[in-house]
């Protein structure tokens, strides 16, 4: 699985908004500066997140962006899907839409298992948990495995 720059930036921007609190608007420039994200690129991402119902925007001197709902109700997967589409695809196709034959037949359940695991982690971890650095024990355990940090 590859996390695009767009998805990474979107999650980081959402985390800045989560850290600011539910009722606080943050200017795009402040998010861009805090996270080292190109401002124009961020504006497009925030627009997608607004259209996707994850952020709300307000114009004016006290304007900016804020989360459209509480951070504990927004999963990391929600953010990624809004800016990049499906979490896991093979050649741009969702695994359930694939079919294989012969010795490759067992690839389909393998891709489905990969999809299920990605969805389990990204779909269950919320912006609030990441912003508070309180990841679920299962995620912490996976990340603490030394083999997780190395390429074979």
From TrEMBL:
Question: Which segment of the chain is annotated as a signal peptide?
Answer: none
Which InterPro entries does this entry report, sorted A to Z? Answer: Tscrpt_reg_Rrf2 (IPR000944), WH-like_DNA-bd_sf (IPR036388), WH_DNA-bd_sf (IPR036390)
Protein origin, superkingdom: Bacteria
One Gene Ontology cellular component = cytosol
Keyword DNA damage applies: no
Per UniProt, the keywords (alphabetical) are: DNA-binding
Does DNA-binding show up as a keyword for this record?
yes
Q: Name one GO molecular function term.
A: DNA-binding transcription factor activity
Q: What is this protein called?
A: HTH-type transcriptional regulator CymR
* Species this chain originates from: Streptomyces jeddahensis
GN (gene name)? cymR
């Amino acid at each position: 699985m590859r996390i695009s720059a767009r998805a990474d930036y979107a999650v980081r921007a959402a985390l800045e908004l989560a850290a600011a609190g539910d009722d606080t608007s943050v200017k795009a420039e402040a998010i861009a500066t805090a996270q080292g994200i190109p401002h124009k690129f961020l504006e497009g991402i925030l627009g997608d997140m607004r259209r996707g119902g994850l952020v709300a925007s307000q114009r004016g001197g006290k304007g900016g962006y804020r989360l459209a709902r509480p951070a504990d109700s927004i999963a990391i997967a929600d953010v990624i899907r809004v800016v990049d589409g499906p979490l896991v695809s093979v050649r741009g196709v969702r695994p359930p839409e694939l079919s294989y034959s012969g010795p490759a037949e067992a690839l389909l359940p393998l891709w489905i298992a990969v999809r299920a695991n990605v969805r389990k982690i990204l779909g269950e971890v919320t912006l609030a948990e990441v912003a508070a650095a309180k990841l679920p024990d299962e995620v912490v355990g996976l990340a603490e495995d030394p083999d997780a940090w190395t390429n074979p």
